[in-house]
Design goal:
Layout: H1 5-11, H2 24-27, H3 32-46, H4 48-56, H5 64-89, H6 97-104, H7 109-120, H8 126-155, H9 158-188, H10 190-203, H11 214-225, H12 228-242, H13 252-259
Helix pairs in contact: 3-5, 3-11, 5-9, 7-10, 8-9, 8-10, 8-12, 9-10, 12-13
The chain binds fe (ii) ion (2 copies).
């Protein structure tokens, strides 16, 4: 199914929270382990601008639909960060976007993919590498959607759960874009399939790792995905990946969880 970029652009809006009763947090504050996970998620959302910076140096941005998507997607992710920062603010935790941005522009997924790119550059033309960026993006979005839905279920605070579900619905639209792009580009080129499979196996790691301290990665992954329900979500992401051309049988997300001691 084609992704309707016009519709996406027209319907895009700041995730709403003003109608949610965050003042409940005064009576019933969120527990420290949840705040710690929310802090991570906020940080990752705000980090999108750096990720976008890395995407814009690839040939991907020559495609008009991709360019339109990037612009709106970046804005939606920023607003997710802002909404989560509001929740954290109710608990006396301040997250400053500008400070984070200044620090984070120095690191990004480019650093993770660069060695892979270097190692295959002799055999690969730019266009075939876009498929890797797109499937990478799809996995990040599947992960984000799963993480928000899980936290909404686990925490059960009505206002928080509603906010997280609203964010998750936007993440699902991001999935649709990246997955459509990835499928199309993987289908079109054997080279793209080989490179994507190689890159994912060699370099994929959970969203935020390499940017956040490893202790924080382990905390969030354990909090959200340990136990049978959490690991079932993780396997669903691997199943989505496995249905992509050339990527059958990969279990990169489950492997990454197990490597961090997260288990059913
Ligand atoms: Fe987001
Ligand atoms: Fe997203």
């Amino acid at each position: 199914m084609a992704f309707d970029i016009e519709r996406f652009a027209t319907k895009s809006e700041r995730v709403q929270w003003k109608d949610l009763s965050f003042d409940d947090f005064r009576e019933k504050p969120l527990p420290p382990h949840t705040l710690r996970s929310l802090r991570y998620m906020c940080d990752v959302e705000y980090h999108t601008v750096c990720y976008l910076r890395d995407l814009l140096v690839t040939p991907a941005h020559e495609d008009e639909d991709v360019n339109t998507f990037f612009t709106i997607w970046n804005r939606e992710e920023f607003w997710h960060g802002e909404a989560l920062a509001e929740v954290l603010g109710w608990h006396g935790i301040t997250v400053n976007f500008d400070a984070l941005k200044a620090k984070r522009l120095k690191v990004g997924w480019k650093d993770r993919l660069d060695p892979v790119k270097q190692s295959v550059l002799g055999n690969v033309i730019g266009a075939d590498f876009i498929a890797t960026h797109m499937i990478w993006g799809a996995i990040n979005e599947w992960s984000a959607s799963a993480a928000y839905t899980r936290l909404a279920d686990l925490e059960g605070h009505p206002a928080l759960a509603e906010l997280l579900r609203r964010i998750a619905r936007q993440e699902a639209r991001h999935v649709a874009f990246y997955a459509t792009q990835a499928r199309k580009r993987l289908e079109a080129s054997k080279k793209a399939r080989v490179v994507a499979r190689f890159a994912l196996r060699k370099a994929w790691a959970p969203v935020g790792s390499g940017v956040m301290p490893e202790d924080e990665v382990v905390h969030v992954m354990t909090h959200l995905f340990s136990g049978p329900d959490g690991m079932a979500e993780i396997r669903r992401i691997d199943e989505h990946v496995g249905r992509m051309p050339g990527l059958d049988g990969l279990t990169i997300v489950e492997d990454a969880m197990r490597a961090r001691g997260v288990a059913a």
